[in-house]
């Protein structure tokens, strides 16, 4: 199954507040300790991007910092018809 819609994170702008994680009605986001930060900074990650429903955007709406964007196809692929 192809992935057609999922969030991406501009981590350099992230406030690490966790609002996006709480806002996800599908419980697909979680916090993971960032490997390159010795201070224990946690960043948002998506667990199963293939389960992220199209046009949800609740995580994007919850972010006051403009950290989250949505990846979507530029044009429909051969395997679907949306």
Q: TL;DR of this structure?
A:
This protein is of the alpha+beta class and 82 residues long.
The gyration radius over C-alpha positions equals 14 Å
Order of helices and strands: EHEEHE
Q: Percent range for helical residues?
A: 10-25%
Number of helices: 2
Mean pLDDT: 82
Class computed from helices, strands and strand pairing: alpha+beta
Number of strands: 4
Largest sheet: 2 strands, antiparallel
Separation, N- and C-terminal Cα atoms: 14 Å
Please state the overall shape, judged from the principal axes of the Cα atoms: globular
Query: Which spans have pLDDT < 50 for at least 5 consecutive residues?
Result: none
Q: What portion of the residues fall into strands of 2 or more residues?
A: 15-25%
Strand arrangement across the biggest beta sheet: 1-4
Quick tags:
about 10% helix; 2 helices; alpha+beta; about 80 residues; about 20% strand
What does this structure look like?
With 82 residues, this protein is α+β, with helices and mostly antiparallel strands. The chain has helices at 19-23, 58-62, and strands at residues 6-9, 29-33, 42-46, 68-71. It starts with 5 loop residues before the first strand and ends in an 11-residue tail after the last strand. The model has no long low-confidence stretch (mean pLDDT 82).
